[in-house]
Amino acid sequence: MKLIIISILLALMGGTAFVVFKTGNKTTVTEISILRDITETHLAQPLPEEIMSLFDLNIHKWNGGIFRFANISDVSYTNTKYAAVTSANEWLSNQYDREKEIKVFRDKVEEIIADAKNDSIGKPHSSVYIPIADELNRLNKSHSQRRVLLIYSDLMENETTLSFYNGRVLELLKSNPDSAIKVFNKLSSLGNLSGIEVHIIYQPTNTETDRIFQIVSEFYRKYLESKGAKVDISANLI
């Protein structure tokens, strides 16, 4: 009888430990992509402390993080820089080692953003939509629990086929946005963006750039929201 009772107690203790093990390690992965426009000279720049705060690893240190950084330039495809820290099981990991892993990740993010300051800024043309569409479609296929795209840009497309600096085209963005969407879809169509956060960060320098940005950013907001994205437009990230 005594052996039976001990067996039951051990089974209960094992079951409790299993429940604690399973429920105490519900980790998530936050994936943040940055697209920074280098075609204009007066644009907001990403700050490492603001970016790292989105990962929230100081509090939720067992969660994972993926960071990607690319420029919006005068060509459609540019080099992407990458950093990541995988999620970890707090019951099977060492806290000291985990803090070192997070520091390595933080240092790499800071290095990528710092190195970007050396990039040449100012271009005669700008390919804005294709990098945005490609990154959004990539995030659509990601299995990360939180997916965020930060766009540091005035969104001013300036290609031979479509230029927002053309007053007629700018007017069409307000009166007939579907015409611009058709052009964009020929370049790169968007998939389902449900669950993706998009932050467009830009601070106009005067009333005219403010007027134009309101037209262009509102076009982008409606277009991306129609695909399921959650869009925020502001002068700064935080």
Walk me through the structure.
- By secondary structure, this protein is an alpha/beta fold.
- The protein has a single domain (29-234), classed as 3-Layer(aba) Sandwich (Rossmann fold), CATH 3.40.50.
- 44% of the residues lie in helices and 18% in strands.
- It has 7 helices and 6 strands; from the N terminus they run H-E-H-E-E-H-H-E-H-H-E-H-E.
- It has helices at 2-23, 48-55, 95-116, 129-141, 167-175, 177-187, 207-226, and strands spanning 29-37, 64-72, 80-85, 146-152, 196-201, 230-234.
- It has a 6-stranded mixed sheet with strand order 3-2-1-4-5-6, sandwiched between helices.
- A hairpin with a 7-residue loop joins strand 2 and strand 3.
- Helix 5 packs across helix 6.
- It starts with a helix and ends with a strand.
- The model is unreliable at 2-23 (pLDDT under 50).
Beta fraction: 15-25%
Q: Strands of the largest sheet, in order across it?
A: 3-2-1-4-5-6
Q: Can you give the mean pLDDT?
A: 87
Order of helices and strands: HEHEEHHEHHEHE
CATH class placement: Alpha Beta
Number of domains: 1
- What spatial form do the alpha-carbon principal axes imply? elongated
- Could you describe the largest sheet, including whether it forms a barrel? 6 strands, mixed
**Quantity of strands, as a count:** 6
Detail the poorly predicted runs.
2-23
- What is the name of the CATH architecture? 3-Layer(aba) Sandwich
Q: Termini separation (Å)?
A: 64 Å
Supply Rg. 23 Å
The proportion of residues forming helix, as a percent range, comes to 40-55%
Structural class: alpha/beta
Count helical runs: 7
CATH-defined fold name: Rossmann fold
